[in-house]
Amino acid sequence: xxxxxxxxxLGSANLRLYVRGRGVVLHEPSVVxxxxxxxRLYAVGHDARAMAERVPPRIVxxxxxxxxxxxxxxxxxxxxxxxxxxxxxxLPLGRPAVxxxxxxxxxxxxxxxxxxxAFQAGAREVxxxxxxxxxxxxxxxxxxxxxxxLLLDLGAGxxxxxxxxxxDIVISRTLRQGGxxxxxxxxxxxxxxxxxLIGRSTAEEIKVRLASAVRLPEDVxxxxxxxxxxxxxxxxxxxSSWEITDALREGLQAIVDTVRTVLEQTPPELASDIADKxxxxxxxxxxLRNLDQLLTREIGLxxxxxxDPLTCVAVGAGRALEHLDVFQDSLLPVxxx
Length: 337
What we know:
By secondary structure, the chain is α+β, with helices and mostly antiparallel strands. The protein has helices spanning 46-51, 73-88, 108-121, 131-138, 179-194, 200-210, 241-247, 249-264, 268-277, 291-299, 312-322, 324-327, and strands at 5-10, 14-19, 23-29, 32-35, 41-44, 59-62, 65-66, 69-70, 97-102, 125-130, 149-154, 159-165, 168-175, 196-197, 221-228, 234-240, 279-282, 303-305, 332-336. The model has no long low-confidence stretch (mean pLDDT 92).
């Protein structure tokens, strides 16, 4: 009970930290505000995100994790160091063991960068766990038996579909795009159809308030402010939920195709299990309105939303570290620092 075990979901948009015996203790945007020409740290998490697109040239707001892997090693190390310092206030003295959830199929170079960053930040031991497996563990899926389960984890930078059995992944496919791709499609639609320029945060707000995987019974509108693409002056328009649904069609079809590809590669016996149980949804993208309807219509399987889709990966990573003997064969242990 006195071991310092941490499970970490280091996502492209958000990070969540699980502490042994305490659950998820930290949920912050994976954003760092730092000096453009030095290592000065201005803000991390929510504070840094609030500074995005509002800073002078001497400050840079960075997302060091993209697609579930390190895009900026130096800033990723800073981010991890802040995380571990935060965790140290809740745990006994000593360096922690960390279980990092990574995309299924991550390359050795990408995984090594994550591991090195964690060691540089102060971890004693670092292990890697495929994110779909972590999500299944966190969602309390009974993985120990020889029975197939299909999980779809929808993050900001990745979409991962996986068939799991016997505490491991049988078949998986990772699409290096997720919720942020949907935001980009919304911004592109608004620019193309309305000649209005909007930022990342506005596009995300539109997604949360208007987007639906299938058209809503009644069209809903939202007032959106931005810059006129021609005059560069502020302007306000009305957007409808139906047009946003249409704008997201390309991104949603890529998700459907990812699931379909995994099912096509699934052994018949496991496919039979999945036909009975359906698809389990985890991740922030699982909260998109009527995504279950779209998947059922296109794939022909029932869809179930995990009880707490946002925290499944972090909780599963922590639980896997607590039961390392059970999941050892599914991990990539990388030794001690």
